[in-house]
Amino acid sequence: KPKVYLATTVPAEVEAYIAAHCAYGKWDQREPIPRERLLEEISDAEGLLTVGGRIDGELLELAPRLKVVSNVSVGYNNMDLAAMKKRGVMGTNTPHVLDETVADLAFALILSTARRVPELDRHVKEGKWERTSDERLFGVDVHHKTLGIIGMGRIGEAIARRGKLGFGMEVLYYNRRRKPEAEEKLGVAYRQLADLLRESDFVVLMVPLQKETTHLMGSEQFALMKETAIFINTSRGKTVDEAALIEALREKQIWGAGLDVFDEEPVSPANPLLAMPNVVTLPHIGSATRQTRFAMAMAAAKNLVAAVQGQVPPDLIPELRAGVEEPQ
Ligand code: 8YV
Question: Which amino acid residue places its CA nearest to atom 2 of ligand 1?
Fold first, then answer.
């Protein structure tokens, strides 16, 4: 059996699936595996299953037999794809299985930021609730407002459906490539980024982290937003210039923010965002439901097994398929 290494814990049924096809080593602690330990453990592995571990030239040099790195995530910014391609190492991710769960979380952030749910929950629990008709408890409406989605991928489309069908919102989108099929199917309208930022009441950032999207939202972009607008980030922290976001909130250039991701994770308790009542913060839980994480782990396991057996996983996305040798 081909030897693989599991750098994260997986459900028992997923481990059993892997065991049926591969010999394997595993890191079975809850905290992430220390890098030096990983570099030792993977020296003879043909496959590596990971949740966002950094895959670079150093690691690849120390794993000469590696054929595949299988992410338990849809994001693959942890992978140096050029270095992997040079060594014939395939990268795989887990698209589709988490789209609806992450879109649900994006709306959890939209609603909880707009109606101040965490802040007012604390207000009640701290015994500060005096009367109901108190404008100090007011939030902002979500229904029938304008939702601007930056990144109209699979998750962006799921968010658009929720806005259109669930809340009667006008939905705008910006995407590197215009998507007439999404406009036709979902009734969303394309805008250049600056226009989307000017027109939207809610701006949701849902792009993959790449060179072109690093700090996609910065001072210039936040300054274009309405002062009554809310910014939501369910992508990666580094798609935002976090200092610019803090400044925009301090200067009241925007009304609030809902964040599931941060420049550094776990986020530092000293981060000024955590002290702002109009900022809702979550610990990168976009896909964090038992059902979805099981589906992700099983999808990653199937990708791992297929690749070490010399096959290309059927749902490998185009961005990761580029340059992958199809079996003869
Ligand atoms: C993480 C995610 O994988 O799928 C992604 O790209 O960001 C999440 O599902 C998960 O939160 C572990 O970090």
Answer: 73
